[in-house]
Amino acid sequence: MGKKRGAPPEVNAGSMADIAFLLLIFFLVTTTIGVDQGINRLLPRYEENPPVPPINERNILTVLVNKDNQLLVEEKLVDLKDLRQTAIDFLENNGKGTCSYCNGKKDPNSSDGPDEAVISLNNDGQTTYETYIAVQNELVAAYNFLRDRECKKRYGMTFTEMEYIYNDPASKATEGLVEDLEPKVKKIQELFPMRLSEAEPKKQ
After folding, report:
1. Which residue in 104, 101, 117 sits closest to 61, CA to CA?
2. What is the tens place of the pLDDT at every residue in 119-139?
3. pTM score, two decimals?
4. Distance, C-alpha 102 to centroid of its chain
5. CA–CA separation, 45 vs 57, rounded Å?
6. CB of 92 within 8 A of CB of 68?
């Protein structure tokens, strides 16, 4: 008679837990978590009676989203797909002709320059959240387009790339990198300041 086949040998799984634990530690230590940035807003410092700076009407671009989610720019119906270019044209109009880095049409009825241009956004209380976010996105994208273009021309990289590196925690470990980028980031922000004013929604 032949030999009976015995039970299969057991696999020692005790070391598998150690290996999994070591891999977990490895990935926790080596993985860089990106910093997601949403819509940036810097709230002003509270003042009981804040001074109201005089703003010429031509330096204000009024954007309204009504209860039917229709977009009105200066009381004229505008498609959402055209809002970004409309905002870009307004921001760099260069009505005074003093902006050397602007490519605007110098329309005397539009903004004097990016440092004086203000976009005033107002939405109805019944505006949908999706429309509100879409409008915000297009307006912020207009600023980002102008900043990216000027930053690329001056420093060889877009402002979006530069700002990401500047805000990345991993960059702070690189000696001198943040200090080198800081004046460049602030310079582009000064050339195209984000002056986006948002009024309280109207209630119907």
Report:
1. 117
2. 999 988 888 989 999 999 999
3. 0.71
4. 21
5. 25
6. no
